[in-house]
Amino acid sequence: MNKFCHLNTYSKLILLIASTTLFFIFIYITLYLYTVQEERHFYDTTYQQYEKEVKSLFRLNSKTATATIIDVTYWDELVQFTKSKDEQWFQQNIVKEFDAYEADYIGIYGLDSQLINKTGTKKLKNGIEISPEILKAVRRSRLKRFYLSVPEGIVEVFSATIHPASDPKKNKTKPEGYFIIARLLDQVFFNSLGRISSSEVVPVNSNYILEKEDKWIVVVLDLKDWKNQTTSKLLFKRPFTLNYKNTKEILFVVLLVSLLSILIYVFCTKKWVYDPLKLVKSILETTNQSAISALKKVPGEFGYIGNLFEENNIQRKQLEKAKRKAEESDNLKSSFLANLSHEIRTPMNAIMGFSDLLGDDSLSENEKKQYLKIIKDSGSNLVSIIEDLIEMSKIDANQIVPNYAAVDLEACMKELYSSLKVTIPPSKEIAFYLKTSSKPLEQKVLTDETKLKQILINLITNAIKFTESGSINFGYSVHKKKGFLEFTVEDTGNGISKDYLKVIFDRFRQIEATISPELTGLGLGLSITKAYVEMLGGKIAVKSAIGKGSIFSFTIPLVIDENVALVTSLKTPALVQGTDDEVILVAEDDNVNYLLLKKLIQHKKHTVLRATNGQEAVAMCNEHKDISLVFMDLKMPVLNGYEAFEQIRMNRPDLPIIAHTAYSSVEDREKIMQFGFTSYISKPLQKEKVFEILDSVFADFTQSSRN
Predict the structure, then answer these.
(1) Are 666 and 528 in contact (CB under 8 A)?
(2) Nearest to residue 390, comparing CAs of 681, 664, 670?
(3) Which residues form the signal peptide (predicted)?
């Protein structure tokens, strides 16, 4: 090492060049030996693959004819023909349908080995000769494929014994005759086979001996006669262009590398010092991106400096991008707040305005009904807006997790179709239908059925909203190999422009205002839908064009439920025999909510008791044994609804208890039903829902007693 340090610069460079040259010579000698070995291995592998390909292709080419002769030879009419020799039947069923057999010759022989009738193309002028020995061989094997040499060339023959239709396997009855199909393997056939296999196909005689060729891969296929002896051969040739034997070029490269090594010294100073410093200067003066990229490619410290410059440049761009995004987010929030104010004030305006108008005694009954309908619709719209906001906040807070369970997809889709079909306004001329899957799933899949339904409901509701006439369809397809299910919702509605397609799933984005002022919303529906899809492990996409409609599609993982479902009987609270005056306890701390529920229940001529907290509800259920139903608010003082439910169940396990609460999310509903409540109704209360629950609990046994 000390001697090397004392060498002059020239000597160091000579030593460096010599070392580099020796290294490259060693590398290329090693590569040369490796190349020779790889050439041999690659040729053998390619030959084996090509041989398999040729045999598979030739076997596949004969499958159609084989299948045809199998189908034809268990045919009662053909059996009858061997006995009747009806020329008209032969013309009608064989000659007329000759083209369908894709053959050049068809012959039918009797059990006495005599030809009954035949037909063929001009390619085989003299037909083919089928000897009794061949037919005996066919009789033994029932089905036989072999090759014959004829003056026109090579003929591929498919032969089979004839049996009744009741014996498709040909093992119950004796043969009634023989059916022969033959096709000429002419130049047209070889050209077609060559195009398919990217080969040159040439027939050769049976004595041909295969010789290895450097520039060709050659495979010989034996064509055997009915005795299983080679009667001819087919030669398949494909170019083998890979050439590893370029030793002169390798030596030239070694020489070139050696010469280039001599020039390294000349360029070292310029390449390692001058050029990098020039790039640093350019970067500091102009922040030139191309200069940064060039500096990064320089080995050593200058490359590291280039990376630092690039990181600094990226951080600066990210800050600028974050600033723009923050400004855009601020604008979106401002727009959202303005829109939220508008969306809430619009239904509130209708509710308060028409409520005031209802105080006018001069209103007719029709006007009152109209105003009440407007108030109800506006209230529903307001609830929908609030639910979207709550759902989005839960998604942001990661409070929603998928509840995976076995789902019958076919039943789920049919149920959605039935429930959504009735929601289409009669004023809209829409053909609504469910697309049947070409490969419907027979097994159940593991997914969150509730969220899957909500995704489809959101997309279909949107389609109905933006389609005045035309059609709406939805369905699913199975991609077992790729492991996912794909759902589509297609409509012929207004369509979406390219600009909106880029942001259609972003929050607070709305396209309704550009289409019709009557179509309003917060712009959260598709954002929630996208969040649900991603929660289930899938992706969502949309294709659309203005005036042509839209196609929304999304995927979820395909996970088959391997568990066998056990049929068990579910314990449900006994239904109470209804009368016109049942005693119903309403556990509700809010006076307005209690008054509303009381009026609805009294409309059904039932007696209403009230408890203002959970503890009072428990005491009243224990004291009043005539209470036959409880409406339980879940959020009450002293004891909440869940705690009160548990204590009531201890003493009165069969008492129906209905949960009524402002918690309206799917997760809340699942929690309530799993806790054991008889049923569930969310606020704001709807008259029809309350009546439906009362009717289901107080089953009317009057009709059954009459019968």
Answers:
(1) no
(2) 664
(3) none
pLDDT, tens digit, for every residue of 181-240? 999 888 888 888 888 888 888 888 888 887 777 678 888 888 888 888 888 888 888 887
More confident call, 567 vs 350: 350
CA distance 564 to 529: 31
Calculate helix-pair angle for 409-421, 449-465, nearest 10 degrees.
40
- Of residues 177, 146, 145, 176, the one with CA closest to residue 68: 145
Cα 614 to Cα 203: distance, rounded to the nearest angstrom: 95
Reduced to 3 states (helix: H, G, I; strand: E, B; else coil), residue 98 is: helix
Kindly write down the DSSP assignment for every residue of 514-562, as one continuous string: HH-TT----S-HHHHHHHHHHHTT--EEEEEETTTEEEEEEEEE--B--
- Of the two residues 104 and 563, the one the predictor is more confident about is 104
DSSP assignment of 194-221? HHHHTSEEEEE-TT-----BTTEEEEEE
The pTM of the full predicted model, rounded to 2 decimals, is 0.41
DSSP SS3 for 346: helix
> Cα(376)–Cα(39) distance, rounded to whole angstroms?
82
DSSP code at position 285: H
* Contact of 15 with 7, CB cutoff 8 Å: yes
Closest CA to 441 of 563, 566, 560: 560
| Cβ-contact 138, 131 below 8 angstroms | no
597's tokens = 């529920």
- Name the residue among 284, 244, 185, 219 with its Cα closest to residue 38: 244
Neighbours of 482 (CB within 10 A): 9
Smallest CA-to-CA distance from 354 within 370, 342, 340 is with 370
Euclidean distance between CA atoms 705 and 707, whole angstroms: 5
Tokens linked to 590? 């809010």
DSSP symbol at 231:
E
Please tell me the predicted confidence (pLDDT) of residue 514: 46
Listing DSSP states for 593-636 in one string gives: HHHHHHHHHHTTT-EEEEESSHHHHHHHHHH-TTEEEEEEESS-
**Residues near 491 by beta carbon (within 8 Å), at least 6 away in sequence:** 463, 466, 467, 470, 471, 472, 549, 550
Whether residue 684 has a cis bond before it, omega within 30° of 0: yes
Answer yes or no: are the C-beta atoms of 152 and 125 closer than 8 Å.
yes
Q: Which residues pair with 472 in a beta bridge?
A: 432, 491
Q: How far apart are CA 679 and CA 629, in angstroms?
A: 11
Instruction: Report strand pairing: 657-661 vs 679-682.
Output: parallel
Cα dihedral 296, 298, 299, 304, rounded to 10, equals -30
Query: What average pLDDT does range 451-459 have in this prediction?
Result: 87
The SS3 assignment for 61 reads helix
Task: Report how far residue 144's alpha carbon sits from residue 158's, in angstroms, rounded to the nearest whole number.
Answer: 6
What DSSP character marks residue 699? -
By the 8 A CB rule, do 85 and 111 touch?
Answer: no
Terminal alpha carbon distance of the chain? 115
Report the alpha-carbon distance of residue 110 to residue 138 in Å, rounded. 12
